[in-house]
């Protein structure tokens, strides 16, 4: 399609407690606050300047208690998806398979997607090794990142750049 690129909707999906709210808050404020009302579903909005005008970037922090129905609804709303898990919680990585299946069902195989392992600062509590995260990256056929939202903004910015690039590509094609 020749739709002009004026905005993008990014959806954060993952198990409870992996750092979705911390990720969104870090992106918007450049800060890590530490304690969040994580049950709430909320859209964060940022205007990004471009050479010609600006684009609107929406980030949906999906609330607790995701069900197949809510994941499907969020998937339809969004243009791109950040699948996030905690490196200290192997089950949160396994869980993403279910989420990915729903996205594939709704949007097809080829849609803007990244896989993000958070809490890389908690080295001694780590439950996911490199091999396993690579396997999932390959299975999902998307770029993967390891970040610490607590330590720095850098990883969050890289993830957002990547997903924006993928979404833009979708608009041009
Ligand atoms: P959500 O349920 O996915 O939205 O998760 P939250 O953003 O509420 O984060 C859950 C808990 O993990 C909170 O206590 C955060 O402070 C903590 N947390 C989030 N990101 C990190 C991180 O990178 N490192 C560490 N050590 N803790 C984190």
Radius of gyration: 15 Å
Bound molecules: guanosine-5'-diphosphate
Q: Let me know the average pLDDT.
A: 92
Class computed from helices, strands and strand pairing: alpha/beta
* Biggest β-sheet description: 6 strands, mixed
| Percentage of β-strand residues | 15-25%
Number of helices: 5
What general form does the structure show? globular
Sequence of strands across the biggest β-sheet: 2-3-1-4-5-6
Low-confidence stretches: none
Distance between the ends: 7 Å
Protein name: small monomeric GTPase
Catalytic activity: GTP + H2O = GDP + phosphate + H(+)
EC number: 3.6.5.2
Keywords: Hydrolase
Give a structural overview:
Strand 4, helix 3 (90-107) and strand 5 form a beta-alpha-beta unit. The chain has 173 residues and is α/β, with parallel strands linked by helices. Strands 2-3-1-4-5-6 form a 6-stranded mixed beta sheet, with helices on both faces. The longest helix has 19 residues, at 154-172. The protein has helices at 20-29, 68-77, 90-107, 130-140, 154-172; strands at residues 7-13, 42-49, 54-61, 80-86, 113-118, 144-146. The model has no long low-confidence stretch (mean pLDDT 92). The chain binds guanosine-5'-diphosphate (GDP). Guanosine-5'-diphosphate binds at residues 14, 16-22, 34, 36, 38, 118-119, 121-122, 148-150. Guanosine-5'-diphosphate is lined by residues 14, 16-22, 34, 36, 38, 118-119, 121-122, 148-150. It catalyses: GTP + H2O = GDP + phosphate + H(+). It comes from Mya arenaria (Soft-shell clam). This is small monomeric GTPase.
């Amino acid at each position: 399609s020749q739709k002009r690129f004026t905005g993008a909707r990014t959806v954060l999906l993952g198990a409870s407690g992996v750092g979705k709210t911390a990720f969104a808050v870090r992106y918007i404020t450049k800060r890590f606050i530490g304690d969040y009302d994580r049950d709430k579903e909320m859209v964060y909005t940022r205007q990004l300047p471009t050479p010609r005008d600006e684009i609107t970037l929406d980030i949906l922090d999906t609330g607790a208690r995701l069900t197949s129905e809510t994941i499907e609804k969020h998937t339809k709303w969004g243009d791109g998806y950040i699948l996030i898990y905690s490196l200290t919680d192997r089950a949160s990585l396994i869980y993403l398979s279910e989420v990915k299946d729903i996205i594939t069902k709704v949007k097809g195989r080829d849609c803007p997607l990244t896989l993000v392992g958070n809490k890389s600062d908690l080295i001694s509590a780590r439950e996911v090794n490199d091999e396993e995260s690579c396997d999932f990256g390959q299975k999902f056929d998307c770029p993967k990142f390891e970040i610490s939202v607590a330590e720095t903004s850098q990883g969050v910015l890289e993830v957002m750049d990547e997903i924006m690039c993928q979404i833009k590509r979708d608009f041009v094609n």
